[in-house]
Write a structure and sequence with these properties.
By secondary structure, the protein is an alpha/beta fold. It is globular, with a radius of gyration of 28 Å. About 0% of the residues have low confidence. Keywords: ATP-binding, DNA-binding, Nucleotide-binding. InterPro entries: P-loop_NTPase.
């Protein structure tokens, strides 16, 4: 049998498979590539022609993915102009992508009478039992390694790299300030800060973010990081709670706008109903923090019926969990890496909190689109639950695709006129009268402030992506808030002209500083750039809402409303909004909590201007002009700007909803051209 096999790069091979089952589609295979090293692939079809190799083995008893997953990957490939099998693999946990690597071991012989340099190599290997061949060549003189191999002192062996049973997590072993002082490398400093922000991080997460294994290992060796084995809670040790009385509901697409607690109660009821009928439920989370929180809560009620697919699950358990999808009567919880589980049937697909970032960092694919495609392929009901719908979902509710169930907001809203201060006199009085109450301060900016260049007469921008640079007083640097690896400098100088920068506006650090000056250090005061749905406060204060409203972006108004709605959902008593840019008409609608009318007006504007969600917006960035190519092959209607500082042309094109012109794919293959799907 000749099978078509796709690897993680998206490339396909035609392989001879002698031991394949009658229907091999979706099975994982191991095979030898052209280099002679073993690779992992997924069978995506049958074929005819000349074989490019043969399948070595099928490591699983069941298919890793089903035909529905392959269909969805194709749909996504068409929609995002990408290779379907590359998209497919990007959503498969890394523990399934096995590969072969060359290792070096010590030969079973007498190792006495070796010279000093050779002994160093021997001791290095002895401590680690086996070492990747490439690592050894990087660390020691390659001529010495070849000599030791030729004399039979060390052995070179090729082995499959298969994940460990346990999951390793990394955390700081020393205080952050001391850790940063002990390293010079910018990349290692960013690695330390990343781990510090998340407390405990798996190696898979670090590698996904682009950090290097060699840097992780160096920080471990120097005692800056510590490694520990993370074990999930033993289910048998958890006494199960009695689920609340079942409230029967009719199957159908729903949108639930509510508090976190109500959303969780709804989910418990839904899962109980589906489990009672022996049906599967899939719950997708853009936020890992919410995934872990909900998973732990559901385990209290449903025990081993809760199946989690996440980075905190050790590989052996993740392997077992993945193939449980072939059975029925479970609730599966995961993020992007769980969308291609091989379900035998699926009753409900739930997207939990679309107000979080639903775009996958690796390729920009939207989790909401995947949830919709899953519901279509499995004929499942589709349920969204969030603090409040995003604009696109509000339109779907209007069209009758979702039945909307919403919980009223409890808190009162106050809007205080702000000029340039961090806290207005009116807001100060408001807080002072409630100084003992739990209050959350929302600041739409990281760091201390923006960085303004008097010579350029503008805010300093990131040379890589054009984002406004942020000044951090705590770190003593300016950096790109979008992607920290883009730009970072200890020198307070403009990256464009070299002139001295000045502070302008304020961010989280300065807000903390000012509030502390006014009210001293208080445990009942909290600060954030993004309110967490599962938290509650008596009062929430948005200090600089104008930061969103002043951005020249067609989504700025929508983002402002989303922030207001998220903040309002976690406020029990009061929400204060400081702003100078809200119109009197909008102010009245916000104070009366008439958000439907605000969304209606935004939709009307978008429709008139042919903007999403009534069109597809594509941005093409290129270091050279591509006007003629676009006019000839794509569209004559585009808006073009040249960003002199970044030396990049930006082309903005609007298309009707649906598939984009195939000619855009040609741009993806061009050098120094990047396509961004809004």
């Amino acid at each position: 049998m000749l099978v078509k096999v796709a690897i993680s790069s998206g490339r396909t091979y035609l392989l001879e498979c002698e031991d394949c089952p009658k229907n091999p589609i979706g099975y994982r295979v191991l095979f030898k590539g052209k280099s002679g090293k073993g690779s992992t692939g997924i069978i995506v079809g049958l074929s005819e022609g000349k074989a490019q190799g043969r399948v070595s083995s099928l490591p699983d008893k069941l298919p890793l993915v089903n035909t529905k997953a392959l269909e969805i990957a194709k749909d996504l490939g068409n929609y995002y102009l990408d290779i379907p099998w590359k998209i497919l693999w990007s959503f498969i946990p890394a523990s399934f992508d096995w590969y072969e690597e060359n290792f070096v071991l010590l030969a079973p012989r007498n190792l006495k009478n070796l010279d000093k340099n050779s002994l160093q190599v021997v001791e290095y290997i002895k401590k680690r039992r086996k070492v990747p061949y490439e690592t050894l060549l990087e660390r020691f003189d390659y001529r010495l390694i070849h000599l030791l191999k030729d004399h039979g002192i060390i052995l070179k062996k090729t082995e499959w790299v298969i994940p460990r049973v346990e999951e390793e997590v990394y955390s700081l072993n020393i205080p952050l300030e001391e850790a940063l002082k002990r390293v010079r490398s910018k990349e290692k400093k960013e690695l330390i800060e990343f781990i510090n922000e998340r407390e405990k991080v798996t190696k898979e997460e670090l590698l996904e973010q682009g950090f290097k294994s060699s840097h992780i290992n160096d920080l471990l060796k120097r005692g800056i990081l510590k490694r520990e084995i993370l074990y999930p809670k033993a289910l048998s040790e958890i006494p199960l709670k009695q689920a609340p009385p079942l409230v029967k509901r009719k199957k159908g697409n729903e949108y639930l706008s509510t508090s976190f607690k109500r959303a969780l109660d709804f989910l418990i009821n839904l899962v109980a109903q589906n489990l009672g009928g022996g049906k599967n439920t899939l719950v997708l989370f853009p936020s890992k923090e919410e995934l872990y929180r909900v998973s732990d809560e559901l385990r209290n009620y449903f025990g081993e019926k809760v199946v989690e697919i996440s980075a905190r699950i050790k590989p052996k358990e993740l392997y077992e969990n993945w193939f449980r999808a072939h059975e029925s009567g479970f609730v599966f919880l995961g993020s992007f890496k769980s969308v291609f589980l091989p379900f035998s049937e699926l009753e409900s697909v739930v997207l939990f909190n679309e107000q979080e970032n639903t775009k996958f960092p690796a390729n920009g694919v939207d989790l909401r689109r995947i949830a919709y495609l899953l519901s279509q392929k499995y004929a499942s009901e589709l349920i969204f639950t969030s603090p409040y719908p995003r604009l696109e979902s509000f339109l779907l509710i209007k069209k009758g695709i979702f039945k909307h169930r919403k919980e009223d907001f409890k808190a009162n809203i106050y809007i205080h006129e702000r000029k340039g201060e961090v806290i207005t006199e009116e807001t100060y009085k408001f807080i002072n009268d409630r100084v003992e109450e739990r209050t959350l301060f929302v600041v739409v900016k990281q760091g201390y402030s923006y960085a303004y260049c008097p010579r350029c007469e503008s805010l300093a921008e990131c040379p890589e992506c054009g984002s406004l640079l942020t000044f951090s007083k705590e770190k003593g640097e300016i950096f790109c808030p979008r992607v920290k690896k883009h730009y970072g400098s200890k020198a307070f100088e403009c990256p464009s002209c070299g002139g001295e920068l000045q502070e302008m506006g304020f961010g989280l650090e300065r807000a903390r500083e000012v509030i502390k000056d006014f009210f001293s250090e208080r445990e009942n005061f909290s600060f954030t750039t993004n309110p967490k749905w599962f938290e509650e406060y008596e009062n929430v204060v948005i200090l600089n809402a104008d930061t969103l409203l002043s951005v020249p972006n067609y989504r700025s108004r929508e983002r402002f409303l989303n922030l207001v709605l998220k903040s309002l959902r976690v406020a029990k008593n009061s929400l204060v909004i400081q702003s100078a840019l809200i119109s009197e008409e909008d102010k009245s609608l916000i104070l009366n909590k008439n958000f439907e009318e605000l969304f209606e007006r935004e939709l009307k504007r978008r429709k008139e201007e042919f903007l999403p969600p009534f069109s597809r917006l594509v941005v093409v960035e290129s270091e050279q002009e591509i006007d003629e190519f676009l006019k000839e092959k794509v569209s004559e209607n585009f808006f073009k700007v040249y960003e002199e500082f970044r030396e990049v042309y930006r082309y903005m094109l609007k298309f009707k909803l649906g598939r984009l012109p195939e000619e855009l794919k040609e741009l993806k293959g061009m050098k120094n051209v990047r396509i961004i799907f809004d």
